[in-house]
Backbone:
């Protein structure tokens, strides 16, 4: 009987010591919000409460499962909103974490510029979006939208790949056999959809020995604007034999059709 009682006392001492150490650590080295640099406590995560609140407004609301733009579910006709009904997509559907504005936009921009620690906040948002999609259970392969090797070398990482690795889908493999064979210009926000499509036309290919034939693929990327990059990737994957191609993005920009 003495051993369990002794262990119970030891566990209580460890818990008390742990709480005391965390309190002292917070007092001496308080955490800072990754977005606004305000002081935060351990229970806040990586953001302050104000930034969490702003982030939630960016990730709320219904959207079109075909193009990802804001849309009421009651305004969809055959799974498409009025803004995209006349548009042609090679990808078969999309899931998004939110809208490219305010806190979510700031986080994605920081994430692309050395703040890889933000993957711990952004990846769960993407995972929740994927879980809520109509195609979640159909996916065989996750494919991060690739960077050209020169841009990958400059940045040091592919942000889409970091997100894909944190989606926690052990039965779904991540494949990097989709590659960017031409360094394209950065897609300008003001460009027309046609200009953006021309910019990425023929920019992707698949490696020999790929495993896309007969598979359902989900592309992973940070932001969709016109959909030109996702479209070209999906076209390339389907030419390589993929049966269906879906997309998962952190945010959708360009809420209005151009």
Residues:
């Amino acid at each position: 009987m003495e051993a369990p009682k002794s262990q119970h006392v030891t566990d209580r001492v460890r818990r008390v010591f742990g709480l005391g150490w965390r309190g002292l650590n917070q007092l001496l080295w308080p955490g800072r919000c990754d977005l606004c640099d305000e002081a935060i406590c351990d229970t806040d995560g990586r953001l302050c409460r104000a930034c969490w609140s702003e982030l939630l407004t960016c990730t709320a609301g219904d959207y079109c499962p075909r193009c990802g733009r804001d849309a009421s579910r009651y305004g969809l006709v055959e799974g498409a909103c009025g803004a995209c009904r006349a548009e042609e997509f090679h990808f078969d559907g999309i899931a998004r974490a939110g809208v490219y504005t305010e806190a979510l936009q700031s986080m994605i921009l920081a994430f692309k510029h050395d703040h890889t620690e933000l993957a711990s906040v952004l990846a769960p948002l993407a995972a929740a979006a994927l879980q809520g999609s109509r195609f979640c259970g159909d996916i065989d392969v996750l494919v991060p939208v690739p960077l050209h090797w020169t841009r990958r070398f400059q940045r040091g990482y592919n942000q889409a790949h970091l997100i894909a690795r944190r989606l926690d889908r052990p039965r779904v493999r991540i494949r990097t056999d989709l590659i960017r064979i031409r360094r394209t210009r950065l897609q300008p926000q003001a460009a027309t959809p046609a200009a953006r499509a021309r910019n990425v036309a023929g920019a992707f290919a698949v490696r020999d020995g790929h495993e896309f034939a007969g598979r359902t693929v989900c592309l992973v990327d940070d932001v969709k604007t016109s959909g030109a990059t996702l479209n070209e990737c999906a076209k390339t994957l389907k030419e390589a034999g993929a049966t269906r191609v879906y997309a998962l993005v952190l945010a959708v920009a360009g809420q209005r059709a151009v």
Q: What stands out?
A: The first strand starts at residue 31 and ends at 32. The domain at 39-252 is CATH 3.40.50 (Rossmann fold). The chain has a mean pLDDT of 86. The chain has one domain: 39-252.
